[in-house]
């Protein structure tokens, strides 16, 4: 299997943020409610979502290897896409 790098993970998180409607903020505005980001700790990575402007966060995907988080983010993106399609069909 091909190795996963930080750039690939950051790109996926950017897709999630744009998909759920979080605009790409300047770097100094880190605490935007609803923004997804990666947390790097203890040799692993986790996906978290900012909960408020004071900086509290909700863990969305618990810490794992880059490969594990890469695959889980793809599953999350698929779930978001399915939910959006379901909402569009049920609104008709």
Description:
The chain has one domain (6-85). The longest helix is centred in the C-terminal third of the chain and has 26 residues, at 66-91. It has helices at 6-19, 66-91; strands spanning 36-41, 44-50, 57-64. It is globular, with a radius of gyration of 14 Å. The mean pLDDT is 88. It is built from two helices and three strands, in the order H-E-E-E-H. With 92 residues, the chain is of the alpha+beta class.
Topology:
Elements: H1 6-19, E1 36-41, E2 44-50, E3 57-64, H2 66-91
Antiparallel strand pairs: 1-2, 2-3
Helix pairs in contact: 1-2
In brief:
This protein is of the alpha+beta class.
Low-pLDDT windows of residues: none
Figure out the total of helices.
2
Terminal residue distance: 43 Å
Order of helices and strands: HEEEH
Shape: globular
Number of strands: 3
When the domains are counted, the total is 1
Largest sheet: 3 strands, antiparallel
Overall mean pLDDT: 88
* Strand order across the largest sheet: 1-2-3
Alpha-carbon Rg, integer? 14 Å
Proportion of strand residues: 15-25%
């Amino acid at each position: 299997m091909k190795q996963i790098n930080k750039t690939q993970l950051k790109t996926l998180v950017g897709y999630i943020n744009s998909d759920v409607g979080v605009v790409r903020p300047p770097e100094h505005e880190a605490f935007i409610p609803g923004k997804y980001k990666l947390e790097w700790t203890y040799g692993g990575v986790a996906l978290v979502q900012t909960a408020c402007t004071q900086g509290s966060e909700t863990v969305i995907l618990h810490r794992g290897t880059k490969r594990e988080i890469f695959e889980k983010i793809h599953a999350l993106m698929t779930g978001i896409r399915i939910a959006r399609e379901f909402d569009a069909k049920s609104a008709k």
